[in-house]
Amino acid sequence: MPTSAATREEARRLRNLFAAKGALVIKADVLQPAETLLDLYGEDIRARSYLTSDPLRGEMVLRPDFTVPVVQMHMESYADPARYTYSGKVFRKQEHDETRANEYVQVGYEVFDGQNPAAADAEVFAAIAEGLSGLPVRAATGDIGILMAAVRGLRTTDDRKAALLRHIWRPQRFRALLKRFGSAAVPPARAALLAADDPFANAGPDIGLRARTEVAARIAALRADAAAPPIATEEIALIDAILGLRETAPNVLSALRDIVVDMPAIADAVKRLEARLAALGSRGVEVETLEFEGSYGRTSLEYYDGFVFGFYATDRPELPPVATGGRYDALTARLGQGRAVPAVGGVIRPDLALELL
Length: 357
Fold this sequence. Notes:
Strand order of the largest sheet: 1-5-6-12-11-10-7-9-8
Helix content: 40-55%
Number of helices: 14
């Protein structure tokens, strides 16, 4: 689909704005190796991406966003701190809404700087807000890190916490797991399997790709899970309280300080939120009216693990977000083979920004 001249001009304006802040202008290949995305996000990514097969390079994907290739490039450079900007098309399947574009231009600003994460969060947010200056948009913010800290602090098994963390970005699955782990009941079919002295008795020959040892290990894990006590009702209520937060940022901070009393595991994450709000205020952001949602960012690609934000048209609720962004420290560790560099970034859709003029 051709990109209009106006969109290209707006993309150049935004990229130049970010370059003037010290960001290096970079490019990323449109075709990316699919293996990296599949390793990061699992087979679910296939439903959202355009994949193809190359006889020499294997399975490839049309670039669904810029974050992964930018992180890969940065982790090879060993530069710290560093700032990057880019513009170009990304490609996303739209299975439910044919009116939404399946290819569009993104302009981004990424900051890799571990010296002061709160200041870096504020820098990116303020840069994106400056790019949208004068447009009728509202900002929404959240913090995935608070929810992750709450899950890690639960008094339950490591396997249960790992399962919940894995499904934070799938709210329905997360809710179902939390409900199951909070119940002492075991489904009848599973109870019968777990109670059997020899679950392989009369099982017949092995069929399929899983070896009997793998099946036995899975049964042992299920037995250990069934023997674990349920997650306390009070702890589940605290998770629900965090997810239900939807207020101005200062009021949310006050509520979280109250939750810390009963869930001290989130204390450090709450301190990071407090430092971020102070940094945003120092950049002229009106934090007193800044919206915060406890569950914000849980339907994005699975690399945000801290501050998340988006900008939305105030009078056009049917439009996708005009800009989004967030912190993705864990992604740098995975792509850097254990060497992590704190990172935060944001992207703007120039075509949507032009619609709001």
